[in-house]
């Protein structure tokens, strides 16, 4: 059930926002989206274990390469793809936001383990890259998006918002674990972040329901194509780069998935911080998440055979 909870919830949120947007609009105007983001990263911090931090120079080199791919190479690949496909302003914003965000905190780790890779490496690289992303996202988004959208991005203001919405709750959650109020694996905490993602997406899409009605079939096709180019382009670059590192095949799997997968909660938090009707950008991020999730699940057996794991 855990595997399907988020995808099914996102589909339901999309349907509700299209056919009954008024409740979502009302709740969004109350300012609930930032609180959803805070809860997501507080719980992520609460569930994070740093005891498994890998040691040695090989992990450090691998972390640096993976972080560069995820946080630096990816934004420029997204910009190139947006220009090549001539996406609309809203879809361009969605692609550029999705391209600058770090790895997803849960899916990446689970899929690395299913493919026979080093789950502990995926865990630690994902946590560290998410922290680094708080500081890289505002400036990379300013570089790639400043000439491609119809409003100004203030990188310092966005940095402040990401620190307050992402980094501070994550750190507070990590230290709150010492109070031992709940087990980090308590069912309530297991489903709470996904629930908050679903709610945040529902509120964002509801506020832009009219924009969503205008999305054409050709635009949806471009979203699929852009996702495939960025996601699998990054994965291929990561596979090649990982082969040049002094690491085993299990670690190479962790690099391929950590560098190419993109998180949805951070993307939603960025879009929510703009105070604009960005429903088409949110839709892009949601569809990117679906395509990434199901495509990677389909190729895991082939990846396992490729690496002989």
Main sheet attributes: strand count, strand direction, barrel closure: none
Residue stretches low in confidence (pLDDT < 50, at least 5 long) are: none
CATH class: Mainly Alpha
Strand content: under 5%
Outline type: globular
CATH topology heading: Na+/H+ antiporter like fold
End-to-end Cα distance? 27 Å
Structural class: mainly alpha
Gyration radius from CA atoms, angstroms: 18 Å
* Share of residues in helices: over 70%
Global mean pLDDT: 86
> Into how many domains do the coordinates divide?
1
- Total strand count, please? 0
Order of helices and strands: HHHHHHHHHHHHHH
Q: Count the helices. How many?
A: 14
State the CATH architecture: Up-down Bundle
Question: Could you name the key traits of this structure?
Answer:
309 residues; mainly alpha
Can you describe what's shown?
This protein is mostly helical and 309 residues long. It has one domain: Na+/H+ antiporter like fold, CATH 1.20.1530.20. Helix content is 78%, strand content 0%. The chain is built from 14 helices and no strands. The protein has helices at 2-19, 22-29, 32-47, 57-85, 89-100, 107-114, 119-145, 155-176, 187-206, 209-213, 217-243, 249-260, 264-272, 279-306. α3 (32-47) packs across α8 (155-176), α9 (187-206) crosses α13 and α9 (187-206) packs across α14 (279-306). The chain starts with a helix and ends with a helix. The model has no long low-confidence stretch (mean pLDDT 86).
């Amino acid at each position: 059930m855990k595997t399907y909870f988020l995808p099914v919830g996102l589909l339901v949120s999309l349907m509700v926002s299209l056919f009954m947007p008024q409740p979502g609009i009302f709740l969004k105007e109350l300012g609930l989206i930032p609180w959803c983001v805070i809860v997501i990263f507080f719980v992520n911090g609460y569930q994070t274990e740093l005891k498994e931090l890998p040691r040695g120079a090989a992990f450090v080199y691998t972390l640096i390469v993976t972080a560069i791919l995820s946080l630096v190479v990816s934004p420029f690949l997204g910009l190139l793809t947006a220009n090549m496909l001539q996406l609309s302003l809203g879809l361009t914003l969605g692609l550029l936001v999705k391209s600058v965000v770090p790895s997803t905190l849960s899916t990446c780790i689970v899929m690395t383990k299913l493919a026979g890779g080093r789950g502990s490496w995926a865990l630690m690289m994902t946590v560290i890259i998410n922290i680094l992303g708080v500081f890289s996202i505002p400036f990379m988004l300013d570089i790639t998006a400043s000439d491609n959208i119809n409003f100004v991005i203030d990188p310092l203001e966005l940095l402040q918002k990401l620190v307050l919405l992402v980094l501070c709750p994550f750190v507070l959650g990590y230290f709150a674990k010492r109070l031992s109020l709940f087990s980090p694996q308590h069912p309530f905490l297991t489903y709470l972040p996904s629930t908050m993602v679903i709610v945040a997406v529902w509120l964002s899409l509801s506020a832009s329901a009219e924009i969503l009605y205008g999305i054409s079939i050709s635009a949806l096709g471009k979203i699929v194509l852009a996702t495939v180019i960025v996601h699998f382009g990054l994965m291929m670059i990561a596979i090649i780069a990982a082969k040049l590192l002094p690491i085993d095949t299990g670690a190479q799997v962790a690099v391929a998935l950590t560098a190419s997968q993109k998180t949805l909660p951070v993307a939603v938090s960025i879009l929510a911080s703009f105070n604009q009707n960005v429903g088409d950008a949110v839709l892009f991020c949601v569809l990117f998440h679906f395509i990434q999730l199901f495509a990677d699940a389909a190729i895991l057996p082939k990846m396992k055979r490729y690496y002989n794991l």
